[in-house]
Amino acid sequence: MNIKKAALFGWGAYFVFLAVSQAYALDWKDLHERADQIDAVAARQLIQENRDSLEGLYVLGLVYLNERKNAQALQLFDKMLGTDPDCIEAKWGRAEVLRRQRNIEESEKILNEVIKEKRKFAPAYISLSYIKYMQMEFSESVRLAYKVKNFGQDDVDLSNYTRAYLLIGGGKGMLAHYGGPVTKFMHGTGIYPNLKKAEKLQPDAPAVLFGLGSFYFLAPGVVGGDIDKAQDYLERAVKADPDFADAYVRLAQVYRMKGDEQKYQRYIEKAFQLDPQNELALDEQSGECKFICISLSE
């Protein structure tokens, strides 16, 4: 029996057991980690015996999020809320989909409510940290990510714990970029170590590959910038997740820096095809460079 089949067999029994009663809080950390190890086909098989199992619906919703199937995920989270309107995990799931759909005001409102109700629910802090980053509130983004880091790895699922390090590193990078000499030093020295901690936790995660690829692309050579390493990490990111629009934008910028205009156009178009509202792609297209671009003259 291969690993995936063995896991599926074991988790099927797990969900049958949990479906007996739903009058308890979900073990969200365990469910997040289970969802990271299976695909949608396997997740759907897990809930065949009880299609109303909150645990099964949540795992399938998480898998859909991992696969960027946001509409399908939202349907499942709404179904969970129809069964249990107070389900924190489903509230967060709905807010995360709304964030991805750029319905930021409603998403942020729900996330703050979730955090108020469940102070150590790490996924809500991570979602809110992403929102603050895209709103260019980098100090707040870093603060929220530090909250998750400080919860400790025992109380956070692996993916969200890794994302905390990525957001700390990314936020510090932006603070260093926009800050004066003291700020540049204070935050600049914290970028690479946090990204490497994320890599140690999940070396093959697309978000980790993207984070390090972006660092090697954007950092000056004197502090570790390396265009070839950037290309390698970003190509691995899009290979691991072919629907990762942000990674296509950075990869396009790498190819422009290398003088390959054809690949630049191909990857920018791919990013817009995947996500017409992608902030990095729009930033590149407009030339505003709020999230840092590197021109050929630099």
Beta strand count: 0
Query: Which whole number gives the mean pLDDT?
Result: 91
Oligomer: single chain
Secondary-structure element pattern, one letter each? HHHHHHHHHHHHHHHHH
Shape: globular
Q: Tell me the CATH superfamily of the largest domain.
A: Tetratricopeptide repeat domain
Gyration radius over CA: 20 Å
Low-confidence stretches: 1-6, 13-23
The first-to-last residue Cα distance is 55 Å
Overview of the molecule:
By secondary structure, the chain is mainly alpha-helical. The protein has 3 domains: 1-83, Serine Threonine Protein Phosphatase 5, Tetratricopeptide repeat (Alpha Horseshoe), CATH 1.25.40; 108-203, Serine Threonine Protein Phosphatase 5, Tetratricopeptide repeat, CATH 1.25.40.10; 205-298, Tetratricopeptide repeat domain (Serine Threonine Protein Phosphatase 5, Tetratricopeptide repeat, Alpha Horseshoe), CATH 1.25.40. The chain contains 17 helices and no strands. The longest helix is centred in the middle third of the chain and has 21 residues, at 158-178. It starts with a helix and ends in a 12-residue tail after the last helix.
